[in-house]
Every structure is written in structure tokens, then in C-alpha cells.
Amino acid sequence: MNTNEIGWIGRYGNKLLALLKEHDPDRYTSLLFEGTLKEYLLAQDEYISERIWDLTMELAKKNGVNEELKLRDQMRWVQEVNSFRNIAEEIVLTDRRNGFSLLHNMYPSHTHCEKMHISFLQIGNCS
Asked: How far is it, in rounded angstroms, from Cα 58 to Cα 73?
């Protein structure tokens, strides 16, 4: 299978594909020849997307961003949820417990992600 024939693999699948090619070419080649590359990338994309969504909703709940706010001030609700999604994405992509750290690998000097104000957001220890 040629990598041009992979098809849709999602946002995070695409990021992971680029990282595999650059930082772990042996694993990339192995997955490609086994015919499991697309399956692997789709599974990782789904896993990352779900983790980001779950954390986004947890942040929203703990900070009072709920359906009541959505009905009362939809623009503020959208801004808050987008902000939490951005925070959740940085946390998930830099979480070394995942066995990979997409953002860290892409931007090794991008350390502010690991120094976020987690206690302010009241989500506990995410490191």
C-alpha cells in the first residue's frame, strides 16, 4: 500500500503518520508492509479525539459551562468550549502516558504545554 492510497485517517492520524515517517521509520515500514497502517492510524485518531472530547467536557463541567449558559449566552458558551478544547488538545498531545507525545515530538521546545495552569482548571494532575 502506497501512503497516497491510505485515504482519510483524521487530523491526529495525519499528525501521527508524519511523526512515524520522520521519527520511527522502522515502525512505519512495518505497519505499511503488514497492511495495518491505516487501521492503526484510525484507531489512534479515534482514541486521541475521544480523550480530547472527554477532557473538554470535564473542563466545561467543572467550570460551570453548561446548557444553561448555552441558552443564556451562546457566543460565550462557544468561546469557553473552544478554549477548553484547545487546552484539552495540548494536554492530550503532550501526555507521555499515551506512549507517544505528538506535540512534544513535533515541537520539542514547546514546553509551555506541560506548564499549564492545571490547578486553576481543577482537573487534577494530568502529568
From this structure: 20
CB atoms under 10 Å from CB of 23, counted, come to 12
Instruction: Judge contact between 101 and 109, C-beta under 8 A.
Output: no
CA distance 82 to 14: 22
Average confidence (pLDDT) over 27-38: 93
Residue-wise pLDDT tens digits, 53-96: 999 999 999 999 999 999 999 999 999 999 999 999 988 888 75
Query: pLDDT confidence of 126, banded at 50, 70, 90?
Result: very low
Q: How far apart are CA 80 and CA 85, in angstroms?
A: 9
DSSP for 34-49 reads HT-HHHHHHHHHHHHH
**What are the CA-CA distances from residue 64 to residues 61, 80, 81, 126 (Å)?**
5, 10, 11, 20
Q: Which residue has the cell 504545554?
A: 113
